[in-house]
Amino acid sequence: MFGFKKKVKRDVFTFEDLTRFPMIFYKTIGEDIFSERDKNLLRRYLLRFYLVLGFLNFNAYVVGEIAYFIVHITSTTTLLEATAVAPCIGFSFMADFKQFGLTVNRKLLIKLLDDLKEIFPMTKEQQEAYHVAFYNRHMTRVMWLFTILCMTYTSSFSFYPAIKSTIKYFFMGSEIFERNYGFHILFPYDAETDIKIYWVSYWGLAHCAYVAGVSYVCVDLLLITTITQLTMHFNYMADTLEAYDGDAHTDEENVKFAQNLVIYHARGLDLSEEVNNIFSLLILWNFIAASLVICFAGFQITASNVEDIVLYFIFFSASLVQVFVVCYYGDEMISSSSRIGHAAFNHNWLSCSSRYKQIMRYIIMRSQKPASIRPPTFPPISFNTFMKVISMSYQFFALLRTTYYG
Question: Hey, how many other C-beta atoms are within 10 angstroms of the C-beta on 189?
């Protein structure tokens, strides 16, 4: 009657449904993972030009942030100003490094996505058995929450000064329009006197923050979607094996089932190694930088005014959530792949042939080393890793407070 459409429940999902979120979001800064397959050459080159232009602008502002940090870190009287820009520099470095890592590993990532697509359940019956709808729903909620929180940080820093100045000038009777920026930048020119130069610089900085936010978030979103699908496959193997009744089948059928499971299991483990090869180094730098970012953001919360406390609390929360999400999915991959060994031991195998038991023994032995992401110098990513990052952040924080308050 009023034109509202009832939301239609999806019967069958495609592989693209589970990867669409990061792919579309990435294109908003010009990054197209499958650009080489785009037959529209004009669109491909325009997106590439937009991406390169955006990162040139982004890194130009990062240089300004670094210059501001160097000028103010040399004096204890301006240490608070220096530490205010430090989390933004760390965030920018993470965004740059993630984009660089994606560019270097682009072919490996495309191969991983193609391999995952090959084993993706296609029919309605298969997807019900794999619980695809559940994984897609859960993954989408995490992605939205994570993305909104991270982009809220960049948006709040970008637009708060303009919104504040507008309200004060137009609604509170302020005689001047304050020309401030959301981030501390040392400009090589006068960026405040001329209103045109101010707004060009301001919107350039806002776009810089958006590029940083998207490149920072999307690599993690790609990690989430790949681990979600691997977890789905590992849990399906465990569920299938746990429900398998060897007494209800012939020895030949049991052996065939076990051999197929070994092949499937090996394929899943190979794919998990591909995920590790692509993302492990990125996660190492991510955790090191996140420890410093959390430290500096936490220090600003304890030493700043109310306005800055709100902004840096959003920043602090986004960094914590980002580390937690990565550790959560790393822990999920370990748990789901470990389940296969438990399922092999717990299902009804007592009356099966010795050959079948030997295969099960092999599966159990292989499951003792679960699939995981292993950054150099770090243990496999899990909830324990999250506690380690928090511990590192607190140590940096305690050192910084001691230095500042003497």
Answer: 9
372 to 114, 313, 337: CA distances (angstroms): 20, 31, 9
Q: Compute φ and ψ for 245, nearest 5 degrees.
A: -110, 105
Whether the CA torsion 26, 30, 31, 37 is positive or negative: it is positive
Greatest alpha-carbon pair distance for the chain in Å reads: 89
Please return the burial class of 37, using the count of CB atoms within 10 Å of its CB with bins 0-12, 13-18 and 19+: exposed
Which stretches does DSSP call E strand in 212-300?
Answer: none
Give residue-wise pLDDT tens across range 228-266: 999 999 999 999 999 988 888 889 999 999 999 999 999
Query: Which candidate, 316, 329, 308, 170, places its Cα nearest to that of 234?
Result: 329
pLDDT tens column, 100-158: 999 999 999 999 999 999 999 999 999 999 999 999 999 999 999 989 988 888 888 88
Please report which helix (H) or strand (E) contains residue 76, including its range.
none
- Residue 245: strand pairing partners: 348
Tokens encoding 345 = 């031991």
Listed residue (114, 111, 139, 130) closest to 18, CA to CA: 139
Tell me the torsion sign for CA atoms 86, 88, 89, 90.
Answer: positive
Which residues neighbour 314 within 8 Å (Cβ) at sequence distance 6 or greater?
149, 152, 153, 156
Rounded to 5 degrees, what are φ and ψ at 105? -100, 20
Q: At what angle do helices 251-303 and 106-118 cross, to 10 degrees?
A: 140
